[in-house]
Amino acid sequence: MHKLSRRDLAQGLARYLAVGGLVSGFGPLGGLVNLAQAQGQPLDKVVLAGWSKPISEITNLLVEADKGFFRAQGIEFSYLPGAGGGDALRNLLSGQADVAFTDPGSLFAALDKGEKLRAIYDIYPQNVFNVVSLKSRCISKPADLKGKRVGVYSLSSGTRQNLQVLLHSAGLSEADITLVPTGLLNFAPLMQGQVDATAATDTGLLVGRQRGLGEVNVMEVSQYLNLSSDLLVVREDSYQQKKALLRRFLSGFRDSAQWMMRAPEEAARLATRVAIDGQNEAINLEVIKLRNASSISALTQKKGLGSLDSAMLQRGLQVYRDLGVLSREIAVSSIVGTDLLPIKP
Q: Taking 70 as the threshold, does the pLDDT of residue 237 lie above it?
């Protein structure tokens, strides 16, 4: 039986798009990939370790069965849930996953311990982290956090790392507060008075407000350091040895992100079925719009989604060194791989 070559697939894709391939609710290349599979082409398995459970803001990664973004690249994709960026990296380093969806702070901490890792895609170039408090607590600036109980998603999450940045801006550290791991839905402890403030994200705040959070003060970490919120990270050996596969994976990932930008209403509707927090389609849509906006920067508009800002990452490394999180200098050129990104269409 004749096996389709990559050239055959590329030519088929061109014909497919020319006759309106993105129609009838099927994912890109859906029919063509099925044909390729019928010709006996095996799929390469790729596991993505996430920082979260399957929530609505990552709907683009939860609809593979419907849309086939990764199948179109010859990949059998699966998502491994986690509890923070550090958890995602542990799953990567233990071999349970091939790629990690993690925050820069967790990446920097792992690098400082001697782990060999590469960032290959900037998922959210905008810093979406914040620290939120009820107005009645009178916490309006970082210095006001001194002596307070502050919630974080987990001790290995980006909320903790970004809280450290905010504290540092006021000459404070974690020793000056009481850190309280509260879980992903951490606005309930805030509303119930179990914490005085909570470190969260823009989407978390949106959902909290929808659930009756009330009047709050919000400190945006981006005002102090607009470092990327999340990156795709791989082990150094994978980066060196599996570049062709990783390029295909990034193409599928970018296609999924572009779909969610083009069709946020469809994504919001599908999230009611695939996301554990997706029961309300209207809230899904607002969450997805926020996440779409955080995926774009001046650099991505010029070079395409996922483009890595080495200068900003180097600045982030210096800030985390100033925080005392890092014990040594790390050259950004040794931890960033920019050669795998798809060419901007």
A: yes
Q: Which residues pair with 219 in a beta bridge?
A: 131
Residues 211 and 276: beta-carbon distance below 8 Å:
no
Which two three-digit tokens encode residue 83? 């509890």
> CA dist 312 to 61, 75, 89, 196, 228, Å?
26, 31, 21, 31, 8
* Collapsed DSSP state (helix, strand, coil) of residue 115: coil
Structure tokens at 146: 């001194």
Q: Which amino acid is at 161?
A: Q
Q: How far is CA 113 from CA 106, 110, 116, 327, in A?
A: 11, 5, 9, 9
Buried b (16+ CB within 10 A) or exposed e, 110-149: bbbeeeebbbbbbbbbbbbbbbbbbeebebeebebbeeeb
**Token pair belonging to 49:** 């370790």
Tokens for 205, please give them.
């705040």
pLDDT band at residue 18 under the 50/70/90 scheme: very low
Which of these, 317, 293, 287, 300, lies nearest to 121 by C-alpha position?
300
If you search the block for the tokens 């980066």, which residue do you land on?
Answer: 239
Q: How many helices (H) and strands (E) does the chain have?
A: 15, 10
Beta bridge partners of 99: 48
Q: What is the pLDDT of residue 82?
A: 95
Q: What stretch of H or E contains 260?
A: helix 243-262
Please provide the DSSP assignment of 78-90 as one string: EEE--SSHHHHHH
**Distance of alpha carbon 244 from alpha carbon 138, whole angstroms:** 53
CB atoms within 10 A of CB 244: 11
> Encoding tokens for residue 243?
């570049």
pLDDT band at 342 (very low <50, low <70, confident <90, very high): confident
- Round to whole Å and give the CA distance between 29 and 40: 16
- Which is it for the CA torsion 209, 52, 246, 285, positive or negative? negative
pTM of the model: 0.86
Asked if pLDDT for residue 248 goes beyond 60, the answer is yes
Tokens standing for 94? 């233990």
The DSSP bridge pattern shows strands 149-152 and 197-201 to be: parallel
